[in-house]
Amino acid sequence: MTPDTLITPDKIVLDGKTFISAENIPIPEWACVVSERPQPTLTVKDDDLFLVTDTMGNISGCSLEDGGPSMGLFCADTRFLSRLELQINGRSPVLLSSTADKGFALSVLCTNPKIDDYLNADTIGIRREIVLNGALFEEIEIANYSTTSITFELSLSFDADFVDLFEVRGYSRKKRGKLLRLVEPTHLEETGDGVVPPATQSHGEESLILAYQGLDGAVMESRIQFQHQLPDYFQGYTAIWRLELASHETKKLGYRLQKLTNNQPSSGVSAATTLAQAKASELMEEQNWVQQITRISSDKSLFNRVIERAEEDMYLLRQSFGKYKTVSAGVPWFSTLFGRDSIITASQTLMLNPQIAQETLMLLAAYQGQEEDEWREEEPGKILHELRMGELARCQEIPHTPYYGTVDATPLWLMLYADYYSWTHDQETLEQLWHNALAAMDWIDRNLQKTGYLSYARKSKGGLINQGWKDSGDCIVNRKGELAKGAIALCEVQAYVYAAKIKLSEIAKVKKRLDLAETWLEEAKNLRVRFNKDFWIEDQDFCALALDGEGNQVDSITSNPGHCLSLGIFTPEKAYSVAERLRAPDMFNGWGIRTLSSLSPAYNPMGYHIGSVWPHDNSLIAMGLRSLGLIDQALELFQGLFNMTSQQSYQRPPELFCGYEMNGDNAPVQYPVACTPQAWATGSVFQLLQMMVNLVPDAQNNCLRIIDPALPESINRLSLHNLRVGGTILDLEFERVGSTTACRVAKKRGNLRVVIEA
């Protein structure tokens, strides 16, 4: 808070503005237009700011119970705008078209309905453009397409509830802070009727201010500054323009909405002044991003659209956390830092841009666990699960400050640490994070002592019951569909530990710590022997999902063992048995492999982790199939996922989709609240490309091996431009002739040795 801040039980004075509780100032309401059905949505994002509207660009003040509760403008896990509703003479416009194709901007074209006897339908053209760039900008162009002049009212209704994102998702609070109203200091004494008047909003007013004080005392504001043409009058938080347009005349309205917390910008991104500047800034930053990444193209336009969308979404999902930028997990629910999600996405995109991995490693290392804290499930050396910045976190109502309840982020961090070095030979980062790697391995070893396996059991009453990638409450089931009990040791987590020890033993050699190299290698070998005995379900010839708290097999047929295939923990015969079983009809639905067999009593095609299909899950399995030499099977999996993605809006893979079987020409069934864009779904596009071309970097020894590349039948040519391996930048060209794919180095800047192995 600044020196000119005064907070008392009756009022708040902030930067010369005086607020009192909204309960003391009733304001006139502007009626909302009730939607007749749940609305599809548009999503735009810029760094730590995202907006979800209906296809009209509106956030309605009222809707059906199942319509659009997640709409709004969000920053730092807080909803700074819960209503944004455009009306003509109190009526909803008629939508003509809309798109959020650019990712950081949406555009809407609409017109008027018939209004009484004086305004025919389709007389007015309304073009809305909304852009995010540290703030929200909107410009509205209104055109009269009739042969005579017309007069009407156009209104924009605003509101902000400042709820925490967890509340939007359904978290129930016993008590909330209070909404505030801006008042003139001279109005603090009550009028004769006992009502304190708000600050006057009259003709020519330039701004609206909506405010809230949280239980932690933080004051949050949404400041709306009008541009181009000021409103003629206000009714509460609704701005109304009385417009008179001559035949074919056009007028422009606009505003900028800034978000503040304790009188400081809530966003970490500096806000532009105008929409044009915001747009130019976004386009320039995106262009800089495109110049840094590997540019990928093929001879098929639909495939190129999927690639281009994935490149754009990876740019959009980047988010600033202090001095680092990493990939947030997904919009709308998970637009923040996650351990597991950020690590897997960074691993998937090493071919695209290794800098994502570098900043992810550094950022997660900065938050690495330092002490024992049961509420947050923090332990020394542990990598976080999720970071939140909203009021619930600030008030300690949830443990996400950050929360550490994840069993797999720590071994995954170690795997990424080693893989990043293989791609870059970045010795500075290797050295800087070595002590973090040792701390992470110590955490793993401490937790292996009891049973020999890395397991989880919830400690925090505010934490997650399940702490692997399948973290919903109903997904760890045995073959009878019964929930597993006690500490859970997931199969894929043991494979991550195995891979982390194998990879770190090589890093230890680089660090000249031969003692650690030998120890970790020996521990990995012992883990492999025990794993193949304890996790193998003899009568199913398959790997158990997990071991429960008593060491019994959780013996359902799931996708989890597919994550183990590329990591070398299975004996060869067991690996091939798992690979074959995953492709059986009860697992593979035509577009991808289900999370749980359709033969399980617990199977639900609409279940989050008990029958749905996840693109990232499948791309990891595809990498496993490829590592076993099952190239045709891996390409079949790619083709199913590509066919699914090509049928999505904007050719963007969703977080997950329902497990219903492909049957003739039916489309993939959408999961109702899947995040899109979502990080590791987007990353799966690049991981599947890596599966095809099979790049094996060894930047330390200045070598890149390309082993038996294989394009699917749907693609004849593939090009990688600006690919970075170590200090070399190169262009690669792949061409399929019959069943053979050839590769050539088209351009190389640097002395990297490229070995192509057929």
Automatic annotation (TrEMBL):
SUPFAM superfamilies, alphabetized: Six-hairpin glycosidases
GO BP annotations listed: carbohydrate metabolic process
The Putative glycogen debranching enzyme N-terminal domain, residue ranges: 44-256
Superkingdom of origin organism: Bacteria
Annotated Mannosylglycerate hydrolase MGH1-like glycoside hydrolase domain residues: 341-647
InterPro entries: 6-hairpin_glycosidase_sf, 6hp_glycosidase-like_sf, GDE_N_bis, MGH1-like_GH
Name this polypeptide is given: Amylo-alpha-1,6-glucosidase
